[in-house]
């Protein structure tokens, strides 16, 4: 909505066509190169100039938010569905299986699922909704006696983030191979617990810092 409650004027047909081409090209390029891909590559693939790209999407974050809005909704929907499952352990397995299956074919979606991007509101909300979902599922599983009681949600997020980053490579080796490693990782959280854990967990307030740390050392995501 524009100021005053009025709807923005609809785009001309050619402008809408350019916008749609940019979104489609960005989805492909981000899938191949990640969300830090050069924007001029996206413009060329869409068959438009850089000026047209920036007219529709003034910043990289604006483009990322539009391109991955559907993926963000899928993650939010997966969390809602998981919370509706009575058996918490089954819900945890189903939730992460659904997310990993989403990212297996798309590096761009993988990046936004495992990164905190505070400047993209929909993706920042997705990240924190994910943490809330995991926190609730962990608490339920512990109450039901199926998860060891000396772990917290951040333990799961800390380990599953890097594994999620490896999903496309595992999928390239063999489709579905990532399911083996997801099952192995989750098995370490099952009750009864093994020996006591040697260190305290990371606090949930460090969530954004954790996901930001999944970028390669020294690499900064361009603000574009």
TrEMBL record:
<keyword id="KW-0805">Transcription regulation</keyword>
<dbReference type="Pfam" id="PF00440">
    <property type="entry name" value="TetR_N"/>
</dbReference>
<dbReference type="InterPro" id="IPR001647">
    <property type="entry name" value="HTH_TetR"/>
</dbReference>
<feature type="domain" description="HTH tetR-type">
    <location>
        <begin position="16"/>
        <end position="75"/>
    </location>
</feature>
<dbReference type="InterPro" id="IPR050109">
    <property type="entry name" value="HTH-type_TetR-like_transc_reg"/>
</dbReference>
<feature type="DNA-binding region" description="H-T-H motif">
    <location>
        <begin position="38"/>
        <end position="57"/>
    </location>
</feature>
<dbReference type="Pfam" id="PF21597">
    <property type="entry name" value="TetR_C_43"/>
</dbReference>
<protein>
    <submittedName>
        <fullName>AcrR family transcriptional regulator</fullName>
    </submittedName>
</protein>
<dbReference type="InterPro" id="IPR036271">
    <property type="entry name" value="Tet_transcr_reg_TetR-rel_C_sf"/>
</dbReference>
<dbReference type="InterPro" id="IPR049445">
    <property type="entry name" value="TetR_SbtR-like_C"/>
</dbReference>
<dbReference type="InterPro" id="IPR009057">
    <property type="entry name" value="Homeodomain-like_sf"/>
</dbReference>
<keyword id="KW-0804">Transcription</keyword>
<keyword id="KW-0238">DNA-binding</keyword>
């Amino acid at each position: 909505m524009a100021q005053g409650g009025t709807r923005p004027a609809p785009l001309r047909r050619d402008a809408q066509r350019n916008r749609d081409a940019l979104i489609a090209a960005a989805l492909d390029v981000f899938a191949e190169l990640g969300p830090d891909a050069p924007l001029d590559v996206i413009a060329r693939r869409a068959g438009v100039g850089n000026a047209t790209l920036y007219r529709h999407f003034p910043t990289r974050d604006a483009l990322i938010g539009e391109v991955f809005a559907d993926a963000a909704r899928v993650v939010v929907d997966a969390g809602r569905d998981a919370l509706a499952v009575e058996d918490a352990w089954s819900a945890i397995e189903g939730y992460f299986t659904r997310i990993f299956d989403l990212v297996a074919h798309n590096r761009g979606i993988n990046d936004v699922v495992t990164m905190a991007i505070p400047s993209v509101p929909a993706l920042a909300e997705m990240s924190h909704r994910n943490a809330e979902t995991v926190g609730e599922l962990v608490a339920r599983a512990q109450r039901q006696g199926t998860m060891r009681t000396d772990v917290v949600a951040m333990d799961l997020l800390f380990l599953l983030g890097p594994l999620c980053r490896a999903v496309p490579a595992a999928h390239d080796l063999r489709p579905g191979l990532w399911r083996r490693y997801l099952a192995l990782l989750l098995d370490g959280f099952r009750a009864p617990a093994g020996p006591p854990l040697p260190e305290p967990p990371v606090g949930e307030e460090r969530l954004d810092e954790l996901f930001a740390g999944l970028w390669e050392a020294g690499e900064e995501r361009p603000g574009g």
